[in-house]
């Protein structure tokens, strides 16, 4: 058990005085317990109250939860984050705090200033070591971006002039996640980060899955925009698993029978094409063009054989489903008769921005895709990113960033093994780094993500989260040293976040830069008080809406 300090122990630490305390000179407490990455310190309330009047905003917030302090160890300063505070003795003015060590820097002998900050701890302090408030100059050294490629996204809280930077290679190399409740500025923050990356690498390769059609407005000048009107994604790019999700309607043993029939007929249909005939050992997963009419004819042919393994019901079921999708205009962006040519090379060039031509990001708006096959479309796009990276290993490397908005829809908890999109995104999270594929996940419900996916993200950008389950989920995925920051997640303002992991030197709280209106996504909340004052032209609004509704946007 930790012994309480004797009365008068703080007499030499700080005394009430009519003048303001000098920056980072007078101690505000001392270390009372040391254990691993965290320790316990005791603050003097009188010393903390003097800090509040200091002109330096960083010193003024010294001793608060989420703030930083420094401890002298030999010729070095240890920097620590305050995780929690507890009043020990009101009369004596004693407050204990749990702290997490973040890193260390050298001390300049003449001025006592910190320089050459680095992550990690070489020497721990001894109990009794004095604790000092950290200053703006110290934080500038702590958060100073080194020579690595970086993007500036905002200001470090609570400073007004220290820029917050993300190390792009480290962030993308080990994936990242942007988390935040609805209305916290998540979409705008995602657009800001992607704009900064595009400015840094105008010949980059970024693919963004946009389920709500928000981001086209943000990247209309520096991005390639795709939706159902111009995506033209050939159906034959699907592998066998994705074909099954589209064409099979049964479950259990019947589904296995249907799948066997589809596998046999699909392989034969691929083999009939010119490209298929040139491949000696063709597989059912190979992205080889084939005609849907060939597939239905082969199913009909198999159904007519006397030695078929089952009755005609599975063949009729499969054939009618293929013909139904082929005839449905909602699926024409993918199952049109115009998409039978071998356009795979051109499709990869357009979607993966190879070359980028100054537009390094492609926005795939899937809001117009029928809900029955949205997950299949996302699965095909994601798998093509991964497969391209695998099969181009012996070529000059072209890393690709895949950004998935509303990620919990595609990698839901408990269903990771039942959908093709969940499996491929889970595989990219685990193995993509080896092949030059980076994954960016954006979600408002991190607790609904499949277990283990969030822990694969090396950088976590957490905005305000209101749900207790989400907070606990993020807390479990973040490193121990960021726990003090995590406790402030529910108290974050809009456009503020906590960033920890590979993309930053140490965990930081950031206020995002404002983004010009022309570069923001179309995700603003409606102003009910103003819009409900507008009247007139309702009949024209309804007529135009009905026309688009009935034509399904065509």
Task: Present the secondary structure layout.
Elements: E1 29-35, E2 38-44, H1 45-51, H2 57-60, E3 68-73, E4 76-89, E5 94-107, E6 114-119, E7 130-133, H3 136-143, E8 150-156, E9 163-167, H4 168-173, E10 176-179, H5 186-200, E11 206-210, E12 223-226, H6 240-247, H7 252-272, H8 274-277, H9 292-303, H10 313-327, H11 332-335, H12 344-352, E13 361-365, H13 374-391, E14 400-405, H14 420-435, E15 437-443, E16 459-462, H15 468-477, H16 483-486, E17 496-501, E18 508-512, H17 528-531, H18 538-550
Parallel strand pairs: 10-15, 10-16, 11-13, 11-14, 12-13, 14-15
Antiparallel strand pairs: 1-2, 1-7, 2-5, 3-4, 3-7, 4-5, 5-6, 8-9, 8-18, 16-17, 17-18
Helix pairs in contact: 7-9, 7-10, 9-10, 13-14
Notes on the protein architecture:
It is a single chain. With 554 residues, the chain is an alpha/beta fold. 32% of the residues lie in helices and 21% in strands. It is built from 18 helices and 18 strands. It has helices at residues 45-51, 57-60, 136-143, 168-173, 186-200, 240-247, 252-272, 274-277, 292-303, 313-327, 332-335, 344-352, 374-391, 420-435, 468-477, 483-486, 528-531, 538-550, and strands at residues 29-35, 38-44, 68-73, 76-89, 94-107, 114-119, 130-133, 150-156, 163-167, 176-179, 206-210, 223-226, 361-365, 400-405, 437-443, 459-462, 496-501, 508-512. The strands form 2 sheets. Strands 9-8-18-17-16-10-15-14-11-13-12 form an 11-stranded mixed beta sheet. It has a 6-stranded antiparallel barrel with strand order 1-2-5-4-3-7. α7 (252-272) crosses α9. The longest helix has 21 residues, at 252-272. The termini are far apart.
